[in-house]
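Second attempt. The first submission of FlgD Ig-like domain-containing protein had a stray character pasted in from the spreadsheet, which I only caught after the job came back as garbage. Lesson logged: always re-copy from the clean sequence file. Corrected sequence (747 aa) follows.
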Amino acid sequence: MQLLDITTAFLPFGTVNTYYQTTLTATDGTPPYRWSYSSGSLPAGLSLSESGLISGTPINAGTAAFTVQVTDQAGNSASKGLSIYIATTSTGTIPITPIFTSPQGIGNEFWVDIQVGNTDSPVSNLFGVSFKLNYDTTLLDVVTPYNTNVTPGDMLGSDVVFIHDVNETTGQVSIGMSRKAGQGGISGYGNAAKIRFRVNPNAVGSSTGTFSITNVTAINSSYGSITLAPQSAVIHIIQRLATPVLTSPGNDALANQVDLDYEWTAVTNAGYYQFELDNNPDFSSPEIATTTTATKYNPSSLYGPLASSLPDGRYFWRVKACGDGSMDSNWSAARCVRVTTVVLNPQFPATITEGSEFVVDVRVGSETRLAHVYPVNDLFAVSFSLFYDRTDILNVTTPTSAAVEARDFFGTNTVLFWNVVEDNGDGRGRVDIAISKKAGNPGATGYGSLVKVKFASVGTATGVKFQTSDVGHLISAYNPLGEQIDIAGWTNTMDIQPKPEVMQVWPGDTNNDGSVNEQDIFPIAIYWNAVGSPRPAASMIWTGQPMPFPWTPIASTYADSNGDGVVNVSDIMAVGINWGATHTVSSGHSFAPLLSNENIDHAKYLEAYRAMYEMLEKQGVNIAGAPELKKALAAVIQTGAIKQEVEAKPAESILLQNYPNPFNPECWIPFELSEKANVVIRIYNISGQLVKTIDLGELPAGAYTTQSRAAYWNGRNEEGEEIASGVYFYQMQIGNKVMTRRAVVLK
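This time the job returned cleanly.
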């Protein structure tokens, strides 16, 4: 709940022997409210009711200061100091009174009218009057020049003798005026003179000052004396909000109205801003009149797909600051903006990678933007600058003489000039372009591609801007008659992506550990008869061969040594041919795990081992690595045969360390079961969040340590997304028993 607050800022002045009435106001808290005053006193003759009504007939002149208090139904209370000024009046005489609007804000200008008479006490046959208007120089200044800001009113007519003097030191405006000889006097009441004041910028808010009239002399047309009763009045000064400063677009700027942001500076203590846009500089009938709490306004409600935009043309806009407890600011100085729906739009491919060349297509008009068609009409010639960021990684292709080409919007009868400026002096480059149809040809209407510019990238970046206009480099466009056409610039941003990682296969290094040796037997056996995409331009020559179509799992791609698309007995030949060869393996390009003899269930792959051994026996006579391969195959065949005959039952159920570790992106999680059990493996990140669940179901007792039997994890979470580098924990649940180990992902 908001705190109880008294919202009455000041009280109107009264006059002696004249009935007075005003009501105090408050906000928030819990109504109803009860009012009283806790100190000071009201002017004699006035009283304050519990409902907040101050009323009565004052009997004495002067200022009465007092503190009022309001109490709500919940017992909360608030206090505020106020005052009432009671002016004097002369019974039976005619008043001469300063009339103005109060309160006024600091820095504000306003008129003070000097009124002679009123409806109850009109003047008769007034021919001339002189007086002094006194004011507080700490609060107020007379606006200069004086001859246009101290002027006659309309009461004595327009043909008058008028003399004035302003004394800024004493704070007096002396005025003498009369009708001319032969003219009659004026009866009734009205404004004899007008003085324009400005509240001093150094004045303090929530202060009061007094206007008083002295030294009054008045005559009738017979030069007899008329008695006027000088009146005084109190002016209240409150804080005026500062005037917003318009920042963008610049005055008389040309901009595309669909995406045009009107911007201004923030004003301290402003609660909101009033925004007006009109095609008339006097703002007599605004096209847009709205409020916003931001310091930016985009009239998207007018320009959206379901609404029509304003017609292209010249508009004027202004802003003022508003807020509770302060006087609204003055309207800002108006700015003109030329808005258009026709733009030069730099377009480029959706995906750009480092090291590539690409084309920026500068298009004029638009065929689909925001569900509207915005064509250009009768365009004959246009010149503009195409700006681009990040000259450290972007450049126009060389030779620059071939980097810019005319497109089809103007057809073939065109004249094209351009100049490449690699350093614009602000970290950007630009291409200055001028294109025109040849003399005698008609202008072009519609939308389409105007020119294309070729660029090359040598690095990566995000948010790179391409822009078709800027301060000092505006777009110039003309029809065949030489008449200007309004075309606005446009800005688009791109991201330049890193080169995609391309897998490389070295024929024979089937485990991609950088060396061809007996360990390369095992991936062939593990992925025996696996089928995938053939490797482009495959051979068994020892070189890194690009493979843009990796298999699943990735490690199986390397097992296809000869690149024919199937893992079979022929792949052992590449191992033998390149026996002992080595290459450098980058951690960022290593896809396959390193396999060792100890990790493999050789009994499962006896058929593959025997087929490879037989192949080497028959065709390996001239292969350098055949003897070593045959020896290794014989050993694993013997091991597998023995294991096949004798399956040892583990003494206890245990969870073993995953391999490889660290890994990227896949690994195997080995374990042993001493008895039949339901096996579930859960993987968590370092924050304890579940990443992946591998439910293996019910398994018989035995060792699950080889790649063919261990739990396989492809390094992805439940949503199929690759996990990030870091520490992970995996748990195996066998019945009620839970075991945990740590794994590391290193990319």
